[in-house]
Fold each of these.
Amino acid sequence: MEIDRTDVVAEVAAAFAGYEQALADNDADRICEYFWDADQTVRFGLADHQYGLDEQRKWRAAQPPLPPGRRLVDPIVTTFGADVAVVTTRFGYAGGAVTGRQTQTWVRLPVGWRIVTAHVSEPVPDPDRR
């Protein structure tokens, strides 16, 4: 199996950039288009979770826009063969520390690259760490 084929990395990076733009635009319909339309699709958020795209559509429609100035830190696209990829990144917002983590598994389907599972988290600060 070929890891990180240049052409596949470029395709997934472009899809990921489109997804991130949809997030920045707060376009719930467009965000959901990047996910696999199946009951097996899973997304775990900061204080939420959705199983299947129908749940995610309902959840997205009720969400406020992201804070302005979202920035990504160290995004990594790793591909496995021509049809599977994992995208990881840290993220933050203008004026704040980079705290969030985001992981997505992308699969090439007949309709194109789609996220089949996603996980967003923020670490809990350690009060004993100085």
Amino acid sequence: MKRLLLALAAGVLLAAGCNTVHGVGQDIERGGEKTQDAADAVKRRM
């Protein structure tokens, strides 16, 4: 029973960690898109 609870707790923590990493990845992607948009805007002005 103790091992089952430990395995369940580990699974919950891993799932939460994956969601957090996924969210960070999305934030970084959005930041990159904004940077690229700004660079494109500068290119158009030249």
Amino acid sequence: MRIRLYIPGFLLIAAFACNQSSTNQDKQQPEKPNVLLIISDQLNWNFFSSMGNQYVETPNIDRLMAGGVRFDRAYVANPVCIPSRVSMFTGKRPTYFGFHVPKGIDHNTVDVKEYVAENPIATQMQQAGYKTYYGGKDHFGWKDYAFQPQDLGFEVYANGKEYRGVDCVPKAIETLKNHAVDHKDQPFFMVASLMNPHDICYAHIKDNRFDMDKINDRTDGGGWQDLLRESVLANLRIPEGETGAGGFEPIDYYLQNSPPLPDNYMPQSNEPGIISGEDGGEGMAASFGRYRGQYDSIDWLLHRYAYVKFVEEIDREVGELLEGLAASGYGDDTFIIFTSDHGEMNGAHQMAGKGLFYDEVCHVPFIVTHPSLDGGRVDDSNIISNGLDLLPTIFGLTGVAPQSDFEGLDLSALFYDAKKKLDREYVPVEFSTGMGLVSADYYYGIYYNGSTNNEQIYDLNKQPLQMENDALDPAYQKDLTNHRAAFSAVNEQTLSVYENPESFYQHLK
């Protein structure tokens, strides 16, 4: 069995795919194609209308799905912006560079700036004849321990604060137009790193209504923050033709148009103490930005309405970018890869935000389209890591030989052969309080921090999702034993660098 959420919407893609062959064996991967990588921020893997979600309209991302391959088993290297993005643009695990190592572990790390200087991926592609462009959000570290797109060799067309449809997308389109004139004989690799639906983090709610004072306070700073405020308020404002149009009341409009509370709305039983707070202290679930205990069911419905609007915002931006790509003349010779740095809890287990070992934030969209591909195909069996596999795949698509070895895999053969299976059973997922892995049917993880319920295994075939810790059920003893062994093998190098801490090994003996 596999995860099956929003299944009725699959028929929309299946209807398109039934006119396609099941494989693309008679088609060949083009040499030196253009590549457009679109990265969203905080986008859930299944929040799309073509996947059966009747509360959201995403016609442009749906177009990508209908025109290529949708990978339904894609996971992040770490469900937080910085470590996830560092992984995507180095091909390494975040903890290799010391990003989000669990508190209390002291280990030697590779300097990320030195590593990037020695392995500038865009420079390597330029040496193979490519033009490389980067625009939008970067977030490749913090303060002095960070690198920039320029350090990777990219020509930057929109800076790290220009990550919206009003700035990044027009500049991306202009760059494509200029490329068609000035570098028409060169292929390109372009990154468009867009912000939404991350603006959900600013849709504050208090007393069963949107908290305008808090929203304004957190977006008060001028410049890019003015654009942030405009985005938040525009997406929350009641639309024309409805009672209260142009304003933010009555809340009845929001409640009537919100997705219902998720099936896994209640907190997980036997939740890790570091999340629940049973270890003492506040607990991650009640911390700022997660809101358990602060939001009631009405507040969560308002939050879920807001999330829909920000998802629709990123969809509009994708649509504008696709139109610009077509207008530039490159629509027929460009691989488009669409993914996200992590998801959003969105009320699951009465939490918002990210950074946890839950499907809502670790499981992300990964869509690849190109005119040479059979459209509308869904790969729901290969387990992939968008952090570890992205660079090997881009190098594979472009035929560029990388300078360094990658732990991840080149996925490009999967685009053309629906029957191909990766030689992989697990992908690692790191999080700030521990490490885990995802297999065909399970999440398995160990929390380094905290003292109760630190070992967790979740059967992904259960509905609702991740509501109990199956490590406590004797019926799962064999699966638990297998995943303990896999955890040791997949994380052998990291555990060694961590000097094999007892907090992990007490569960692996």
